[in-house]
Amino acid sequence: MQPDTTRPAPEAMLSVRGLKKVYQTDGGDIEAVRNLTFDLRAGELACLVGPSGSGKTTLLKCISGLMAPTEGEVLLDGKRVSGPPKKMAVVFQEYGRSLFPWMRVRDNVELPLKNQGVPKAERDRLVDEALEAVGLAHVPRSYPWQLSGGMQQRVAIARAIAYQPEVLLMDEPFAAVDAQTRADLEDLIRTVWKKLGVTVLFVTHDIDESVYLGERVIILSSSPTVVQEDIVIDLPDERDQLETRSLPRFTELRHHVYEQIQLAKKGHRPAAATS
Amino acid sequence: MKALKTLAYVLALPALLVLAWWASTLGSVNFFVPTPAALVEKFGEVWFGPRFFSDVLPSIARLLIGVVAAIVIGVVGGVLIGSVAWLRALLEPTLEFFRAIPPPVLVPVLILLMGITDSMKIAVIISGCVWPVLLNTIEGVRAVDGVLSDSAHTYGIDGWARVRYLVLPSASPQILAGVRQSLSLGLILMVISEMFASSSGLGFTIVQFQRSFAIPEMWSGIVVLGLLGVAMSFIFQWAERNILRWYHGQKEVENAA
Question: Which helix (DSSP H) or strand (DSSP E) does residue A253 occupy?
Protein backbone atom coordinates (compact mmCIF):
# COMPACT_ATOMS: atom_id res chain seq x y z
CA MET A 1 0.00 0.00 0.00
CA GLN A 2 2.26 2.73 -1.28
CA PRO A 3 0.73 6.15 -0.77
CA ASP A 4 0.58 8.75 -3.49
CA THR A 5 4.16 9.87 -4.03
CA THR A 6 3.37 13.17 -5.63
CA ARG A 7 1.71 15.08 -2.85
CA PRO A 8 2.28 15.01 0.90
CA ALA A 9 -0.66 14.80 3.26
CA PRO A 10 -1.66 18.35 4.16
CA GLU A 11 -1.01 17.92 7.90
CA ALA A 12 2.43 16.35 7.41
CA MET A 13 5.27 17.89 9.39
CA LEU A 14 7.92 15.75 7.78
CA SER A 15 7.38 14.30 4.37
CA VAL A 16 9.70 11.97 2.47
CA ARG A 17 8.70 11.73 -1.20
CA GLY A 18 10.11 9.15 -3.57
CA LEU A 19 13.52 9.33 -1.97
CA LYS A 20 16.31 7.56 -3.79
CA LYS A 21 20.00 7.57 -3.00
CA VAL A 22 22.70 6.06 -5.17
CA TYR A 23 26.31 6.27 -4.07
CA GLN A 24 28.80 6.59 -6.85
CA THR A 25 31.93 4.65 -6.00
CA ASP A 26 34.96 3.44 -7.96
CA GLY A 27 33.52 -0.04 -7.85
CA GLY A 28 30.26 1.04 -9.49
CA ASP A 29 27.05 2.56 -8.25
CA ILE A 30 25.51 1.38 -5.00
CA GLU A 31 21.81 1.88 -4.59
CA ALA A 32 21.30 2.36 -0.86
CA VAL A 33 17.72 3.61 -0.94
CA ARG A 34 15.44 2.91 -3.90
CA ASN A 35 12.13 4.61 -3.34
CA LEU A 36 10.97 5.75 0.06
CA THR A 37 7.77 7.63 0.71
CA PHE A 38 6.20 8.34 4.07
CA ASP A 39 4.76 11.22 6.06
CA LEU A 40 4.98 12.12 9.72
CA ARG A 41 2.16 14.12 11.27
CA ALA A 42 3.12 16.99 13.54
CA GLY A 43 3.68 15.62 17.02
CA GLU A 44 3.94 12.01 15.95
CA LEU A 45 6.49 9.55 17.34
CA ALA A 46 7.41 7.08 14.64
CA CYS A 47 10.05 4.37 14.76
CA LEU A 48 11.89 3.23 11.71
CA VAL A 49 13.20 -0.33 11.77
CA GLY A 50 14.92 -2.32 9.13
CA PRO A 51 17.46 -5.09 8.71
CA SER A 52 21.08 -4.00 9.05
CA GLY A 53 22.35 -2.44 5.87
CA SER A 54 18.89 -1.29 4.88
CA GLY A 55 20.05 2.28 4.41
CA LYS A 56 18.65 3.68 7.65
CA THR A 57 21.59 5.95 8.18
CA THR A 58 21.55 7.08 4.56
CA LEU A 59 17.89 7.94 4.88
CA LEU A 60 18.51 9.91 8.05
CA LYS A 61 21.35 11.84 6.45
CA CYS A 62 19.08 12.77 3.56
CA ILE A 63 16.28 13.84 5.91
CA SER A 64 18.62 15.92 8.05
CA GLY A 65 20.01 17.67 4.98
CA LEU A 66 23.55 16.35 5.48
CA MET A 67 23.34 14.57 2.16
CA ALA A 68 21.44 15.34 -1.03
CA PRO A 69 19.16 12.57 -2.32
CA THR A 70 19.71 11.33 -5.88
CA GLU A 71 16.01 11.57 -6.59
CA GLY A 72 12.94 12.63 -4.68
CA GLU A 73 12.76 15.13 -1.88
CA VAL A 74 12.26 15.71 1.80
CA LEU A 75 9.76 18.35 2.90
CA LEU A 76 9.82 19.86 6.36
CA ASP A 77 6.63 21.74 7.14
CA GLY A 78 6.04 21.99 3.39
CA LYS A 79 9.48 23.37 2.59
CA ARG A 80 12.05 21.39 0.70
CA VAL A 81 15.13 20.40 2.72
CA SER A 82 18.36 21.38 0.96
CA GLY A 83 20.70 21.71 3.97
CA PRO A 84 20.38 21.16 7.72
CA PRO A 85 17.11 22.93 8.60
CA LYS A 86 16.78 25.20 11.58
CA LYS A 87 13.73 23.34 12.89
CA MET A 88 15.46 19.98 13.15
CA ALA A 89 17.79 18.40 15.66
CA VAL A 90 19.61 15.10 15.29
CA VAL A 91 20.84 12.75 18.01
CA PHE A 92 23.51 10.37 16.75
CA GLN A 93 24.37 6.90 17.92
CA GLU A 94 27.99 7.74 18.69
CA TYR A 95 27.47 9.94 21.74
CA GLY A 96 31.20 9.94 22.39
CA ARG A 97 31.80 11.60 19.05
CA SER A 98 28.86 13.97 18.84
CA LEU A 99 29.60 16.16 21.87
CA PHE A 100 32.49 18.61 21.91
CA PRO A 101 35.04 17.09 24.31
CA TRP A 102 36.66 20.49 24.88
CA MET A 103 33.46 22.01 26.21
CA ARG A 104 31.75 21.39 29.49
CA VAL A 105 28.28 19.86 29.50
CA ARG A 106 26.53 23.17 29.83
CA ASP A 107 28.53 24.82 27.06
CA ASN A 108 27.79 21.90 24.77
CA VAL A 109 24.06 22.32 25.29
CA GLU A 110 24.30 26.08 24.99
CA LEU A 111 26.48 26.32 21.88
CA PRO A 112 23.78 25.87 19.18
CA LEU A 113 21.65 28.52 20.88
CA LYS A 114 24.58 30.89 21.24
CA ASN A 115 25.33 30.41 17.58
CA GLN A 116 21.70 31.26 16.73
CA GLY A 117 22.07 34.51 18.64
CA VAL A 118 19.53 33.61 21.33
CA PRO A 119 19.80 36.23 24.12
CA LYS A 120 21.74 35.15 27.22
CA ALA A 121 18.80 35.09 29.67
CA GLU A 122 16.66 33.04 27.31
CA ARG A 123 19.58 30.74 26.63
CA ASP A 124 20.19 30.11 30.32
CA ARG A 125 16.55 29.26 30.82
CA LEU A 126 16.44 26.84 27.89
CA VAL A 127 19.66 25.12 28.93
CA ASP A 128 18.52 24.78 32.55
CA GLU A 129 15.21 23.33 31.46
CA ALA A 130 16.80 20.90 29.05
CA LEU A 131 19.36 19.66 31.59
CA GLU A 132 16.58 19.34 34.15
CA ALA A 133 14.43 17.39 31.70
CA VAL A 134 17.13 14.77 31.09
CA GLY A 135 18.04 14.59 34.78
CA LEU A 136 21.47 16.15 34.45
CA ALA A 137 21.01 19.42 36.31
CA HIS A 138 23.77 18.38 38.71
CA VAL A 139 26.67 18.00 36.26
CA PRO A 140 26.82 21.19 34.15
CA ARG A 141 30.51 21.76 34.95
CA SER A 142 31.66 18.28 33.93
CA TYR A 143 33.22 17.46 30.61
CA PRO A 144 31.27 14.92 28.51
CA TRP A 145 34.05 12.32 28.71
CA GLN A 146 33.84 12.38 32.48
CA LEU A 147 30.33 10.95 32.25
CA SER A 148 29.08 7.44 31.56
CA GLY A 149 27.83 6.57 28.08
CA GLY A 150 24.18 6.87 29.06
CA MET A 151 24.78 10.26 30.62
CA GLN A 152 26.64 11.47 27.56
CA GLN A 153 23.68 10.51 25.42
CA ARG A 154 21.45 12.43 27.84
CA VAL A 155 23.61 15.49 27.23
CA ALA A 156 23.15 15.04 23.49
CA ILE A 157 19.39 14.77 24.03
CA ALA A 158 19.44 17.88 26.23
CA ARG A 159 21.27 19.75 23.50
CA ALA A 160 18.59 18.68 21.01
CA ILE A 161 15.75 19.69 23.35
CA ALA A 162 17.25 23.09 24.16
CA TYR A 163 17.45 23.80 20.44
CA GLN A 164 13.62 23.63 20.37
CA PRO A 165 13.28 21.66 17.17
CA GLU A 166 9.97 20.79 15.56
CA VAL A 167 11.40 17.53 14.35
CA LEU A 168 13.78 15.37 16.34
CA LEU A 169 15.70 12.70 14.45
CA MET A 170 17.38 9.93 16.39
CA ASP A 171 19.81 7.57 14.70
CA GLU A 172 19.97 4.41 16.81
CA PRO A 173 20.68 6.59 19.83
CA PHE A 174 20.70 3.79 22.40
CA ALA A 175 22.50 1.11 20.40
CA ALA A 176 25.73 1.67 22.31
CA VAL A 177 24.44 1.93 25.90
CA ASP A 178 23.80 -0.92 28.32
CA ALA A 179 20.33 -2.48 28.66
CA GLN A 180 19.32 -0.85 31.94
CA THR A 181 20.36 2.61 30.87
CA ARG A 182 18.60 1.98 27.64
CA ALA A 183 15.25 1.33 29.32
CA ASP A 184 15.63 4.60 31.27
CA LEU A 185 16.48 6.51 28.12
CA GLU A 186 13.51 5.04 26.25
CA ASP A 187 11.18 6.30 28.94
CA LEU A 188 12.98 9.63 28.88
CA ILE A 189 12.26 9.97 25.16
CA ARG A 190 8.56 9.23 25.70
CA THR A 191 8.40 11.82 28.49
CA VAL A 192 10.21 14.49 26.52
CA TRP A 193 8.14 13.83 23.44
CA LYS A 194 4.86 14.19 25.38
CA LYS A 195 6.04 17.31 27.15
CA LEU A 196 7.30 19.12 24.08
CA GLY A 197 4.91 17.87 21.44
CA VAL A 198 7.83 17.48 19.08
CA THR A 199 7.71 15.20 16.01
CA VAL A 200 10.12 12.33 16.53
CA LEU A 201 11.58 9.95 13.98
CA PHE A 202 13.42 7.26 15.88
CA VAL A 203 15.64 4.95 13.86
CA THR A 204 16.53 1.64 15.50
CA HIS A 205 17.41 -1.93 14.65
CA ASP A 206 15.84 -3.13 17.89
CA ILE A 207 12.34 -4.53 17.27
CA ASP A 208 11.25 -4.42 20.94
CA GLU A 209 12.39 -0.85 21.22
CA SER A 210 10.49 0.22 18.13
CA VAL A 211 7.23 -1.32 19.36
CA TYR A 212 7.65 -0.04 22.90
CA LEU A 213 8.47 3.53 21.88
CA GLY A 214 6.46 4.28 18.80
CA GLU A 215 2.92 5.25 17.96
CA ARG A 216 3.78 3.85 14.63
CA VAL A 217 6.48 1.62 13.20
CA ILE A 218 7.76 1.97 9.67
CA ILE A 219 9.49 -1.22 8.54
CA LEU A 220 12.08 -0.93 5.81
CA SER A 221 12.91 -3.66 3.33
CA SER A 222 16.49 -4.76 2.77
CA SER A 223 18.61 -2.78 0.32
CA PRO A 224 17.66 -1.29 -2.17
CA THR A 225 15.29 0.07 0.38
CA VAL A 226 11.56 0.69 0.16
CA VAL A 227 8.89 0.81 2.86
CA GLN A 228 8.02 -2.80 3.66
CA GLU A 229 5.18 -2.03 5.99
CA ASP A 230 3.82 0.87 7.97
CA ILE A 231 1.92 -0.21 11.10
CA VAL A 232 0.10 1.62 13.88
CA ILE A 233 1.09 0.63 17.41
CA ASP A 234 -2.22 0.52 19.23
CA LEU A 235 -0.79 0.12 22.72
CA PRO A 236 -2.01 2.26 25.61
CA ASP A 237 -0.46 5.71 25.67
CA GLU A 238 1.03 5.24 29.15
CA ARG A 239 3.95 2.92 28.55
CA ASP A 240 5.72 1.06 31.29
CA GLN A 241 8.80 -1.09 30.84
CA LEU A 242 7.31 -4.04 32.71
CA GLU A 243 3.58 -3.78 32.08
CA THR A 244 3.58 -2.67 28.46
CA ARG A 245 6.12 -5.29 27.51
CA SER A 246 4.02 -8.03 29.12
CA LEU A 247 0.81 -7.08 27.32
CA PRO A 248 -0.41 -9.73 24.84
CA ARG A 249 -0.82 -7.01 22.25
CA PHE A 250 2.84 -6.00 22.68
CA THR A 251 3.87 -9.57 21.98
CA GLU A 252 1.64 -9.73 18.92
CA LEU A 253 3.00 -6.52 17.48
CA ARG A 254 6.54 -7.50 18.26
CA HIS A 255 5.92 -10.83 16.59
CA HIS A 256 4.51 -9.15 13.53
CA VAL A 257 7.38 -6.69 13.16
CA TYR A 258 9.86 -9.51 13.68
CA GLU A 259 8.24 -11.56 10.92
CA GLN A 260 8.31 -8.65 8.55
CA ILE A 261 11.99 -8.03 9.23
CA GLN A 262 12.73 -11.71 8.62
CA LEU A 263 10.83 -11.49 5.34
CA ALA A 264 12.72 -8.36 4.44
CA LYS A 265 16.02 -10.11 5.13
CA LYS A 266 15.04 -12.91 2.76
CA GLY A 267 14.52 -10.31 0.07
CA HIS A 268 10.74 -10.28 0.15
CA ARG A 269 9.44 -6.94 -1.12
CA PRO A 270 6.01 -5.35 -0.96
CA ALA A 271 4.05 -5.68 -4.21
CA ALA A 272 4.03 -1.96 -4.91
CA ALA A 273 7.82 -1.79 -4.94
CA THR A 274 8.51 -4.41 -7.57
CA SER A 275 7.75 -2.07 -10.43
CA MET B 1 55.52 18.56 49.94
CA LYS B 2 54.62 17.40 46.45
CA ALA B 3 56.12 20.56 44.98
CA LEU B 4 59.35 19.96 46.89
CA LYS B 5 59.54 16.44 45.56
CA THR B 6 58.99 17.66 41.99
CA LEU B 7 61.67 20.29 42.47
CA ALA B 8 64.07 17.65 43.79
CA TYR B 9 63.47 15.54 40.68
CA VAL B 10 64.03 18.53 38.40
CA LEU B 11 67.26 19.62 40.06
CA ALA B 12 68.87 16.28 40.93
CA LEU B 13 70.49 15.57 37.57
CA PRO B 14 71.74 19.15 36.93
CA ALA B 15 73.28 19.17 40.41
CA LEU B 16 75.02 15.86 39.75
CA LEU B 17 76.32 17.04 36.40
CA VAL B 18 77.74 20.22 37.89
CA LEU B 19 79.33 18.16 40.65
CA ALA B 20 80.94 15.83 38.12
CA TRP B 21 82.13 18.80 36.11
CA TRP B 22 83.58 20.41 39.23
CA ALA B 23 85.37 17.21 40.21
CA SER B 24 86.84 16.69 36.76
CA THR B 25 88.17 20.22 36.55
CA LEU B 26 89.80 20.12 40.00
CA GLY B 27 93.41 21.12 39.46
CA SER B 28 92.88 21.14 35.70
CA VAL B 29 94.60 23.80 33.66
CA ASN B 30 92.83 23.07 30.38
CA PHE B 31 92.33 26.44 28.73
CA PHE B 32 89.17 25.36 26.91
CA VAL B 33 87.32 23.93 29.90
CA PRO B 34 86.70 26.43 32.68
CA THR B 35 85.82 25.41 36.25
CA PRO B 36 82.23 25.89 37.41
CA ALA B 37 83.29 28.72 39.69
CA ALA B 38 85.02 30.57 36.87
CA LEU B 39 82.02 30.11 34.65
CA VAL B 40 79.57 31.40 37.23
CA GLU B 41 81.79 34.42 37.80
CA LYS B 42 81.96 35.17 34.08
CA PHE B 43 78.27 34.48 33.65
CA GLY B 44 77.29 37.26 36.04
CA GLU B 45 79.90 39.61 34.67
CA VAL B 46 79.04 39.08 31.02
CA TRP B 47 75.27 38.77 30.98
CA PHE B 48 73.99 40.88 33.86
CA GLY B 49 75.27 44.09 32.39
CA PRO B 50 74.68 46.21 29.31
CA ARG B 51 74.84 43.01 27.23
CA PHE B 52 71.52 41.94 28.63
CA PHE B 53 69.90 44.88 26.87
CA SER B 54 72.08 45.05 23.79
CA ASP B 55 72.23 41.32 22.97
CA VAL B 56 69.98 39.09 25.07
CA LEU B 57 66.73 41.04 24.89
CA PRO B 58 66.94 41.80 21.14
CA SER B 59 67.59 38.11 20.47
CA ILE B 60 64.63 37.04 22.58
CA ALA B 61 62.43 39.67 20.94
CA ARG B 62 63.32 38.47 17.44
CA LEU B 63 62.79 34.89 18.50
CA LEU B 64 59.36 35.65 19.94
CA ILE B 65 58.23 37.73 16.98
CA GLY B 66 59.46 35.07 14.57
CA VAL B 67 57.85 32.17 16.39
CA VAL B 68 54.54 33.96 16.98
CA ALA B 69 54.39 35.05 13.33
CA ALA B 70 55.19 31.49 12.22
CA ILE B 71 52.41 30.13 14.44
CA VAL B 72 49.87 32.62 13.12
CA ILE B 73 50.83 31.99 9.49
CA GLY B 74 50.94 28.25 10.06
CA VAL B 75 47.57 28.04 11.77
CA VAL B 76 45.73 30.37 9.40
CA GLY B 77 47.31 28.74 6.34
CA GLY B 78 46.77 25.28 7.77
CA VAL B 79 43.09 25.85 8.44
CA LEU B 80 42.61 27.16 4.92
CA ILE B 81 44.59 24.43 3.20
CA GLY B 82 43.12 21.73 5.41
CA SER B 83 39.54 22.82 4.79
CA VAL B 84 39.63 23.49 1.06
CA ALA B 85 40.33 20.38 -0.98
CA TRP B 86 41.35 22.09 -4.22
CA LEU B 87 43.69 24.43 -2.37
CA ARG B 88 45.39 21.44 -0.82
CA ALA B 89 45.74 19.72 -4.18
CA LEU B 90 47.16 22.94 -5.63
CA LEU B 91 49.64 23.73 -2.86
CA GLU B 92 50.83 20.53 -1.27
CA PRO B 93 53.51 19.50 -3.81
CA THR B 94 54.97 23.01 -3.78
CA LEU B 95 54.90 23.12 0.01
CA GLU B 96 56.88 19.89 0.12
CA PHE B 97 59.54 21.57 -2.02
CA PHE B 98 59.86 24.63 0.18
CA ARG B 99 59.75 22.61 3.32
CA ALA B 100 62.72 20.57 2.17
CA ILE B 101 64.95 23.66 1.94
CA PRO B 102 67.07 23.98 5.11
CA PRO B 103 66.48 27.54 6.37
CA PRO B 104 70.19 28.29 7.06
CA VAL B 105 70.92 28.27 3.32
CA LEU B 106 68.41 31.09 2.99
CA VAL B 107 70.41 33.39 5.24
CA PRO B 108 72.78 34.73 2.55
CA VAL B 109 69.92 35.09 0.09
CA LEU B 110 67.78 36.93 2.61
CA ILE B 111 70.72 39.19 3.48
CA LEU B 112 70.94 40.14 -0.19
CA LEU B 113 67.21 40.71 -0.45
CA MET B 114 66.48 42.34 2.88
CA GLY B 115 69.86 43.61 4.11
CA ILE B 116 71.34 42.82 7.51
CA THR B 117 68.26 43.79 9.44
CA ASP B 118 66.04 42.52 12.20
CA SER B 119 63.44 41.70 9.57
CA MET B 120 65.92 39.43 7.83
CA LYS B 121 66.61 37.53 11.05
CA ILE B 122 62.91 37.24 11.79
CA ALA B 123 62.32 36.02 8.25
CA VAL B 124 64.91 33.28 8.77
CA ILE B 125 63.15 32.17 11.95
CA ILE B 126 59.73 32.21 10.27
CA SER B 127 60.99 30.32 7.23
CA GLY B 128 61.92 27.37 9.42
CA CYS B 129 59.31 27.53 12.18
CA VAL B 130 56.28 27.80 9.96
CA TRP B 131 56.49 24.24 8.59
CA PRO B 132 55.82 22.10 11.64
CA VAL B 133 52.87 24.32 12.56
CA LEU B 134 51.48 24.49 9.03
CA LEU B 135 51.74 20.78 8.27
CA ASN B 136 50.43 19.70 11.67
CA THR B 137 47.51 22.11 11.39
CA ILE B 138 46.60 20.74 7.95
CA GLU B 139 46.62 17.20 9.36
CA GLY B 140 44.65 18.26 12.43
CA VAL B 141 42.02 20.06 10.40
CA ARG B 142 41.62 17.11 8.07
CA ALA B 143 41.20 14.72 10.98
CA VAL B 144 38.12 16.45 12.42
CA ASP B 145 35.72 13.66 13.40
CA GLY B 146 32.94 13.03 10.90
CA VAL B 147 30.19 12.61 13.48
CA LEU B 148 31.27 15.73 15.32
CA SER B 149 31.32 17.61 12.06
CA ASP B 150 27.81 16.34 11.19
CA SER B 151 26.59 17.34 14.66
CA ALA B 152 27.91 20.86 14.24
CA HIS B 153 26.41 21.04 10.77
CA THR B 154 22.93 19.96 11.87
CA TYR B 155 22.95 22.68 14.55
CA GLY B 156 23.84 25.30 11.98
CA ILE B 157 27.40 25.80 13.24
CA ASP B 158 29.00 26.85 9.98
CA GLY B 159 31.54 29.30 8.63
CA TRP B 160 33.59 31.15 11.22
CA ALA B 161 31.69 29.54 14.11
CA ARG B 162 32.71 26.16 12.75
CA VAL B 163 36.38 27.17 12.70
CA ARG B 164 36.19 28.64 16.16
CA TYR B 165 34.14 26.02 17.98
CA LEU B 166 34.96 22.88 16.02
CA VAL B 167 38.01 23.00 13.77
CA LEU B 168 40.53 24.87 15.93
CA PRO B 169 39.83 23.06 19.21
CA SER B 170 39.71 19.73 17.43
CA ALA B 171 43.05 20.37 15.72
CA SER B 172 44.67 21.92 18.80
CA PRO B 173 46.56 18.79 19.92
CA GLN B 174 48.28 18.56 16.54
CA ILE B 175 48.78 22.32 16.32
CA LEU B 176 50.52 22.36 19.68
CA ALA B 177 52.70 19.41 18.71
CA GLY B 178 53.80 21.55 15.76
CA VAL B 179 54.38 24.57 17.98
CA ARG B 180 56.60 22.52 20.25
CA GLN B 181 58.85 21.59 17.33
CA SER B 182 58.84 25.18 16.14
CA LEU B 183 60.11 26.48 19.45
CA SER B 184 63.28 24.42 19.41
CA LEU B 185 63.79 25.14 15.72
CA GLY B 186 63.31 28.83 16.45
CA LEU B 187 66.10 28.89 19.00
CA ILE B 188 68.51 27.24 16.57
CA LEU B 189 67.55 29.59 13.75
CA MET B 190 67.79 32.62 16.00
CA VAL B 191 71.44 31.77 16.70
CA ILE B 192 72.21 30.96 13.05
CA SER B 193 70.63 34.18 11.80
CA GLU B 194 72.95 36.12 14.11
CA MET B 195 76.12 34.31 13.15
CA PHE B 196 76.40 35.78 9.68
CA ALA B 197 77.34 39.43 9.33
CA SER B 198 75.58 40.53 12.47
CA SER B 199 76.44 43.11 15.09
CA SER B 200 74.33 42.09 18.04
CA GLY B 201 72.50 39.16 19.60
CA LEU B 202 73.37 35.98 21.42
CA GLY B 203 74.66 34.14 18.38
CA PHE B 204 76.85 37.06 17.39
CA THR B 205 78.25 37.45 20.90
CA ILE B 206 79.10 33.78 21.28
CA VAL B 207 80.93 33.72 17.94
CA GLN B 208 82.71 36.91 18.95
CA PHE B 209 83.92 35.33 22.19
CA GLN B 210 85.08 32.26 20.31
CA ARG B 211 87.13 34.29 17.89
CA SER B 212 88.75 36.28 20.69
CA PHE B 213 89.51 33.14 22.73
CA ALA B 214 87.33 34.33 25.61
CA ILE B 215 86.51 30.73 26.43
CA PRO B 216 84.64 31.00 29.77
CA GLU B 217 82.61 33.84 28.29
CA MET B 218 81.76 31.70 25.27
CA TRP B 219 80.64 28.83 27.50
CA SER B 220 78.51 31.18 29.55
CA GLY B 221 76.77 32.24 26.34
CA ILE B 222 76.04 28.62 25.53
CA VAL B 223 74.58 28.21 29.02
CA VAL B 224 72.34 31.22 28.36
CA LEU B 225 71.02 29.49 25.24
CA GLY B 226 70.34 26.32 27.19
CA LEU B 227 68.54 28.21 29.92
CA LEU B 228 66.49 30.03 27.32
CA GLY B 229 65.49 26.70 25.82
CA VAL B 230 64.50 25.34 29.24
CA ALA B 231 62.45 28.45 30.02
CA MET B 232 60.64 28.21 26.68
CA SER B 233 59.94 24.55 27.20
CA PHE B 234 58.50 25.16 30.69
CA ILE B 235 56.28 28.00 29.48
CA PHE B 236 55.11 25.84 26.60
CA GLN B 237 54.31 22.88 28.82
CA TRP B 238 52.35 25.09 31.18
CA ALA B 239 50.35 26.59 28.31
CA GLU B 240 49.82 23.20 26.70
CA ARG B 241 48.51 21.70 29.95
CA ASN B 242 45.96 24.48 30.22
CA ILE B 243 44.84 24.49 26.60
CA LEU B 244 44.69 20.71 26.26
CA ARG B 245 43.29 19.90 29.70
CA TRP B 246 40.29 18.28 28.00
CA TYR B 247 42.49 16.27 25.66
CA HIS B 248 44.72 14.79 28.34
CA GLY B 249 41.69 14.13 30.54
CA GLN B 250 39.91 12.33 27.74
CA LYS B 251 43.01 10.25 26.97
CA GLU B 252 43.32 9.28 30.63
CA VAL B 253 39.70 8.15 30.73
CA GLU B 254 40.16 6.15 27.51
CA ASN B 255 43.30 4.48 28.81
CA ALA B 256 41.67 3.63 32.12
CA ALA B 257 38.73 1.97 30.38
Answer: helix A248-265
